Amino acid sequence: KNQVEQSPQSLIILEGKNCTLQCNYTVSPFSNLRWYKQDTGRGPVSLTIMTFSENTKSNGRYTATLDADTKQSSLHITASQLSDSASYICVVAAYYGNNRLAFGKGNQVVVIP
Amino acid sequence: DTEVTQTPKHLVMGMTNKKSLKCEQHMGHRAMYWYKQKAKKPPELMFVYSYEKLSINESVPSRFSPECPNSSLLNLHLHALQPEDSALYLCASSQDPGSTNQETQYFGPGTRLLVL
């Protein structure tokens, strides 16, 4: 069973609108949670990284939240742009994880004009 | 400089060929990684090098042979690959290979490999 589940699997949004992506995880003991953006055929680019003591972190129009009690995170995209079309991957690291990361399958976002 | 570079960008090889993928970072990171990613799937960890020593091999077939010549370079030697090995191969690095797993991994752009 995948330790990181993301929803929705894919969504289409109009340019300028907001959207929120969800991530639930079961990784334990928890170390940190990262959101990456991956354009098709390219490597993932880090957007945010949060430890258990952080509730929210922003990177431009991207805002990530974390609830370590319920093991949930969200990524909010504000005023979407065409360049936001990508896969957004939630990645969770376990404490004493020996550099292994648990990857979600990604949220595929398509922004249309 | 927060860049991980990979060469080549694209590679087409036959099943009898020998080729190598290269990865380089100049951030002083001491952990480097190889991942394999199939279309519409998350990256799968293949190898981890910590302080230039192989620390994790995720039961990868021997037709993939990693090498870490120094702290900035990571190679992946390919020999007798199969068509199902066609994928995007990603290199990543992180600052500290410590066991607490706190560091962000920075990914390269990947090498898209096609095995015929």
Could you please describe the fold and organization of this structure?
The complex is a heterodimer of chains A (113) and B (116). In chain A, strands 2, 4, 5, 9, 10 and 11 form a 6-stranded mixed sheet that branches. In chain A, strands 1-3-8-7-6 form a 5-stranded antiparallel sheet, with no helix packed on it. Chain A is built from no helices and 11 strands. Helices cover 0% and strands 58% of the residues of chain A. With 116 residues, chain B is mainly β. Chain B has strands at residues 4-7, 10-13, 18-25, 31-37, 44-50, 53-57, 64-70, 73-79, 87-94, 106-107, 111-115. In chain B, strand 7 and strand 8 form a beta hairpin. The chains are: A mainly beta (113), B mainly beta (116). At the A-B interface, strand 4, strand 5 and strand 9 of A face strand 5, strand 9 and strand 10 of B.
How many distinct helices of chain B? Answer: 0
**Major sheet details of chain A:** 6 strands, mixed
Which band does the percent of strand residues of chain A land in? over 45%
Q: What radius of gyration of chain A results from the CA coordinates?
A: 13 Å
- Roughly what is the average pLDDT of chain B, rounded to an integer? 92
The best one-word shape of chain A is globular
| Distance N to C terminus of chain B | 36 Å
Order of helices and strands of chain A: EEEEEEEEEEE
Structural class of chain A: mainly beta
State the separation between the terminal residues of chain A, measured CA to CA.
37 Å
Oligomer: heterodimer
Largest sheet of chain B: 7 strands, mixed
Query: Tell me, what's the shape of chain B?
Result: globular
Helical run tally of chain A: 0
Biggest interface between chains: A-B, 27 and 30 residues
**Helices and strands of chain B: which structural class?**
mainly beta
